[in-house]
Amino acid sequence: MYAVIKTGGKQYKVSVGQKLKIEQIPADIDSQIVLEEVLMVADGEQVSVGAPLVAGASVKVTVVAHGRGEKVRIFKMRRRKHYQKHQGHRQNYTEVRIDEISK
């Protein structure tokens, strides 16, 4: 059984027991959260596709950790103009474990 969920502006295909890094959610570690934006649920041959969301479907997750991703380096340069700009960015994330998919 798997589901396609939407969180933080991105879509993820998840199954029970999977760990996933998503955009940061303001929640405590070891707390349970219910994600209600489920786009699709598949259980063997039965596939439920929402328009845009599947009615009554939800995914229960447990917050495992919070962290920051790897640094992304941004470099801009204009040739022959003596212009260079260096910048870096580290995105915050929340690591969650998928506990239950209900439809």
UniProtKB/TrEMBL annotation:
Signal peptide: none annotated. One of its GO terms (cellular component) is ribonucleoprotein complex. GO terms for molecular function: rRNA binding; structural constituent of ribosome. The keyword Zinc does not apply. Keywords: Ribonucleoprotein, Ribosomal protein, RNA-binding, rRNA-binding. Residues 80-89 have a biased composition (Basic residues). The keyword Transport does not apply. One of its GO terms (biological process) is translation. Residues 80-103 are annotated as: Disordered. This protein binds to 23S rRNA in the presence of protein L20. HAMAP family: Ribosomal_bL21. Belongs to the bacterial ribosomal protein bL21 family. Part of the 50S ribosomal subunit. Contacts protein L20. This is Large ribosomal subunit protein bL21. It comes from Craterilacuibacter sinensis.
